[in-house]
Amino acid sequence: MNKKLVRSILIFIFLFVIELLLNSISLSDLFLLRNITSFYLFILVVILIFYFYFRVLDKPIRRYLISIGLLLALLLLFRASKYIAFEESNFIARHLWYFYYLPFIFTPALTILASLSVGEDGLFKRKGIIISLLTFSSILFLIVLTNDLHQWVFKFNENFINWDNQYSYGIFYFVLIGILAIEMIIIIIILIKKCSLSAAKKMMWLPLLPILYSIVWMVFYALGVFDKIPFSLGELPEVFGFSIAGFFLGSIEIGLIPTNKYSKEFFLKSNISAFITDNKGNIHIKGNEALELSNSDLIFDKTKVLSQDIRLHKNKINGGFVYWSDDIKELNQINEKLEDTIESMMDENELIRLENDLAFKDAFITAKEKTYDNITLATKKELDHIKALAEKTKDDLSLYDQNIKYISILTVYIKRYANLMLEANDSISLDEFYLSLNEIVLYLQKSNIKAFLNKNYENRNIDSKNIMGAFQKFGDILNDSLEFFKGLMITINDTGLRLVLEGIESSFAKEIEDNTSYIDISFGGDLWYLLWI
User: Fold this and answer.
1) Could you cite one Gene Ontology molecular function of this protein (predicted)?
2) For residue 83, what is the DSSP state?
3) Once rounded to an integer, what is the mean pLDDT over residues 432-444?
């Protein structure tokens, strides 16, 4: 567990302890002290809403989270109004109390929908589940809101005399508490499913703890346990709000919900050729290799051709735009070389001749040409795989959509391998290595394959042979497993890579458990078995 995560956990616990302490003094008759807990929590909720708005990248999930934050704010407003503005009006105050259950009932439902949307391509699209959840929640709330007519939830004295202090729970109250607890358990189950990959699984307890605490609290509350202990474990609105906030903040910390938390650090430390502007075109974050452009250069839709070898791309983000450029000069050269190689591969005899001839070329070609030939040799397995996929697609067009995704993934691996080879001098930085793997992960995600990439290293330069050896070994594993595994987690550390392949027992794995393969690739050793011997 890193220091930043420990600090975040301690801050969250500290804020909750402050709430418990404030709650113990809020019984004073002084107006400020009597309502200090509500003021404190309202400030925290507003901060939470703005945090979701500016940090969460996925728009559908961000909408759910902001809606949940607004419901928590409504809960505090209802409670404050009950005790501040309408304390003398029994009918209004009682119904404001009933309105507490609007957030209580709808927040777990929205949390389920937000959890289901994690890892989806856009908004969770099963309308039947969405409509059923919201309809069911609406019915529950209407039963609470009309309690004066049937008293199924709360039972009062005749004519509601002393209703705020003398009441008992109806059968539907316990049904409602049970439903809320079940919804919390459903959230836990969804989280376990979303964490079925890799290292995130080890941190799954973090977002679960607040939910488990709220479940235990509701059970204790319903059983009257709090009447028998001398200290407070929180009031229902506070416990409810902190558990929901803790669940989502924990999910963000372990990487289930993508945010821009480390965007600035990434831009400043990497050699990425990109920058971020506000809506007016003012640059706020800029990578070390970003192009110097005029304002007129920034006015275009998605992609702009600056030259034969430079492409500028643009994408809308919250509050502005992100721009990045691709220098494809050497890639164009590589593509020409690859096209020649692929054409020659169509003739098996020519391929054999090429393999036999490559050993004698070093004395007759330039260093750059040797690099291109090395790239061709190193990626031969991937090129063969691409050829085989193309042949399968010709024979069966129903395989087109799936095979074109596999071909794209293998192609981007070849491109990134070539880029690293061209960059390779004596050493390559871990950040450059991270960017190469990150593009492959993005293509896996676009192909509906669950894929994640974690950083657990301090950036430094590593011998080129060791970096390229690890990347080539990764390519062999990717090529061998591409059509079979269900998910991939990659962790880069100071000594190498840790791969977790879900849904396959890989021949490369030294450790296999529950149809999941765990593979370690070190920077060094005997990995550089093709090009550098």
Assistant:
1) kinase activity
2) H
3) 90
DSSP line for 213-261 = HHHHHHHHHHHTGGGGSSS----HHHHHHHHHHHHHHHHHHTTSS-B-T
Backbone angles phi, psi at 405, to 5 degrees: -70, -45
- Say how far apart CA 64 and CA 66 lie, in whole Å: 6
Half-sphere exposure of 271 (CA within 13 A, CB side): 13
Which residue's structure tokens are 């709808």?
Answer: 106
Are 312 and 291 in contact by the 8 Å Cβ rule? The answer is yes
List the one residue out of 469, 467, 514 whose CA is nearest residue 487: 514
SS3 state at 512: strand
Four-residue CA torsion sign, 50, 52, 55, 61: negative
CA–CA dist 176, 420 (Å, integer): 59
What are the structure tokens assigned to 261, written together? 């938390």
Q: What does the pLDDT average to over 448-470?
A: 88
Query: Domain spans of the chain?
Result: 3-122+179-253, 263-327, 329-522
Q: Which sign does the torsion angle of CA 91, 97, 98, 103 carry?
A: positive
Q: Would you tell me how many other CB atoms lie within 10 Å of the CB of residue 512?
A: 14
Q: Which residues make beta-bridge pairs with 60?
A: none
Helix (H) or strand (E) holding 160, with range, is none
| Both structure tokens of 293 | 């452009």
Q: How far apart are CA 522 and CA 119, in angstroms?
A: 29
* Cα 109-115-119 angle, rounded to 5 deg: 150
Q: Tell me the three state secondary structure of residue 485.
A: coil
Token digits for 484? Answer: 């079979």
Task: For residue 427, list its beta bridge partners.
Answer: 463
pTM, full prediction: 0.55
Distance of CA 171 to the CA centre of its chain: 40
CA distance 61 to 200: 19
**Res. 139 pLDDT band, cuts 50 70 90:** very high
Q: What is the DSSP secondary structure assignment for residue 201, as one 8-state letter?
A: G
Q: What is the C-alpha separation between 196 and 502, in angstroms, rounded?
A: 8
Q: Which two three-digit tokens encode residue 347?
A: 């003739």
Contact 516, 500 (CB under 8 A): yes
Q: Which two tokens stand for residue 10?
A: 């301690």
Q: In percent, how much of the chain has pLDDT > 90? A: 8
